[in-house]
Amino acid sequence: MKKNLRVSIFGGTGYTGVELIRLLLSHPYVEIYQITSRKDKGKRVDEIYPSFRGILDNLFVSPEDADLKNVDLVFFATPNGIAMNYADDLISKGKKVIDLAADFRIKDKSVWEKWYGMRHKSPNLIDEAVYGLPEINRDSIKKSQLIANPGCYPTAIQLALIPLLEKKLINPSNIIADAKSGISGAGKNPELKLLMSEAEEDFKAYGIGGHRHLPEIEENLTKVCGENVTLTFVPHLVPMVRGIFATLYVECIKDFKAQDIFNSFYVNEPFVDIMNADVCPNTKSVRASNFCRISFHKEENSNRLIIFSVIDNLMKGAAGQAIQNMNIMMDYPETSGISHIPINP
User: Fold this and answer.
1) DSSP secondary-structure letter at 177?
2) What is the pLDDT, as a whole number, of residue 3?
């Protein structure tokens, strides 16, 4: 087991980058070697984020000045389209890469380019990248140099659907995903709709013409199911900071006990909590933790099953899951640095 793993964080000033810093500072096997930021280069990290005062004295460096020779692993907590410019060179030099953006999540290059509106600059790495959902791809993650960290909505939705689709218990073409996210999921860039006076006491759908996470969800569920999976996906923005609440409506095509299916599938998973039927999870129960909590309700006299899935979008939906993937890649205990109890209130 390698200790003192040296890591770089590209994009250390966004919400996921800051969450990575917070988690890695308490990781027993990791040294944060450098953190990049163009806007804040030369400034102390704890000057921008006083929560790190007395704990971290690093200066932000520009990406161009980053010393990548002396690091073992690089996290990209950057916008879409950044990691693909660096990944090929890093991997050729034996470095490991975890991309928290979407550059390598979708295997179909033309689909990715359509949804993200840019040309993919490392198409040779698309097939090499492993989709970093540990509950499904743990063995592949362990052997990989390049991890595509899943999106927040896809994580919550897929963990709720995979046990049923894998066993072909539900109709793969009749799925509705109604999902809500806290405003941190929209990122840190200042936008009118994210101002407190706009977002507070408001609740709205967005991306109704098609959200970028839809092809990611459908492609990966199709791979699991072995047949084409399509779903209606409607995301919503709600006036809270952290959290994803996904409600899934599925059509059962066989008789089964959902409690038994979910309990069996996730029995050894440290971060998936299967609750009793008809006990609805809530986002605060996973806040600042890497847990996903799942429950369900079977409608009487109907073949409709309703599944509830909650995660913290910055943890299991981003930074926490990225570190879970890092732990698997490095053969560390999987819960290292991310076994935090949810905070309340």
Assistant:
1) E
2) 61
Of the candidates 152, 225, 252, 292, the residue annotated as catalytic is 152
Domain tally, the chain: 2
DSSP-assigned states of every residue in 237-305: E-S-SS-EEEEEEEEE-S---HHHHHHHHTTT-TTEEEPPTT----GGGGTTSS-EEEEEEEPTTSSEE
Mean pLDDT taken over the chain: 95
Helix (H) / strand (E) element for 91: namely helix 87-92
| Cβ–Cβ < 8 Å for 6, 71 | yes
From the list 321, 116, 82, 84, the residue with the least C-alpha distance to 213 is 116
152 is catalytic: yes
Q: How many CB atoms lie within 10 A of CB 210?
A: 10
Please state whether the predicted TM-score (pTM) of the whole model is above 0.90.
yes
| Beta pairing class for 170-181 and 96-99 | unpaired
Mean pLDDT of the region 66-75: 97
Residue 344 lies in a domain: no
Residue that has been written with the tokens 């919503």 in this structure: 236
pLDDT of residue 201: 82
Among 28-32, 78-82, 84-88, 190-194, the minimum mean pLDDT is found in 190-194
Range of the structural domain that residue 32 is part of: 5-150+316-329
153: left (phi over 0), alpha (psi -120 to 50) or beta: alpha
Cα three-residue angle 145-148-152, rounded to 5 degrees: 150
- Clarify whether residues 123 and 12 are in a common domain: yes
Query: Which pLDDT does position 154 carry in this prediction?
Result: 98
144 has pLDDT over 80: yes
> Are residues 300 and 157 part of one domain?
yes
| CATH of residue 272 | 3.30.360.10
Percent of the chain with pLDDT over 70: 99
